[in-house]
Amino acid sequence: MTSSKPLVISRDTQKKLKSKANQSSEHSFSKECLLDVIRAMDGSTAETFDKSRTIFFPGDPAKKIYLIRKGAVRLSRVYESGEQNIVALLKENSLFGVLSFLNGFQIDRKYHAVALTSVVLESAPAISVKKAINDDTNIGLLLLQGLSNRILQTETFIESLTHKDIYSKLVNFLSILCEDFGVIGGKGITIDLHLSHQDIADAIGSTRVTITRIIGELKKLGLLTIDQKKIVIFDPALLSKDFQ
Questions:
Q1: What's the pTM?
Q2: Dist CA 56 CA 98 (whole Å)
Q3: How buried is residue 69: exposed, middle or buried, by Cβ count under 10 Å (0-12/13-18/19+)?
Q4: pLDDT digits (tens, 9 = 90+) for 78-133
Q5: Which residues contact 240 (CB under 8 A, 6 or more apart)?
Q6: Which of 121, 123, 97, 110 is nearest to 49 (CA)?
Q7: Pick the CATH number of 11-20+161-243 from 1.10.10.10, 2.60.120.650, 3.40.50.720, 1.10.1040.10
Q8: Other CB atoms closer than 10 Å to residue 171's CB: what's the count?
């Protein structure tokens, strides 16, 4: 099964990518509307965070919602033991922090939000969001759509970690990254994130040494490579087929 040549992207993978592109085009209008709506709210502002900077900590007052305009954000649940589990990796046009207006503003943040890359966010005070919804129910529907997408992302991510085999966990994780952050190129699909082996280990509950070893094995099998510190998957369908 060893191979030194990049694999050609399968027809199934090409169909999935085309379908994804079509879906993105169909929903682009609603995403732009959501950005415009949040921008129009009283107290809205554009915020920028460098890579690895904290957006909010667990326990911080939940007073704002956020829409990712550019970049990626990591949400983690931090426990008293100090253990940290990643629950979502959010891409552009993702909405988060919405519990700040679903629970009467009297709650604290449950997650640790960190900029996975350099990010640009559009934020709005929860009180302004509530007023906007009261004034126009269509705004509530747009926010509900954004919340639904956020929940779906989290469910998909958590589902990928239910496999007991660390190989399967890693392959599922890479498949999700291809779906959400993949860029088609001449070699295959590049995951457009600079993720260290430690970042991946933290995401799927493993160790850096184990991730380094498995990625090395996958490289020898000709299933992926590393190009400019980014993971390139030659064919996600074949990768999943071999290890699921």
A1: 0.73
A2: 13
A3: middle
A4: 877 777 777 888 988 888 987 655 555 557 788 899 998 899 999 999 889 888 88
A5: 171, 172, 175
A6: 121
A7: 1.10.10.10
A8: 24
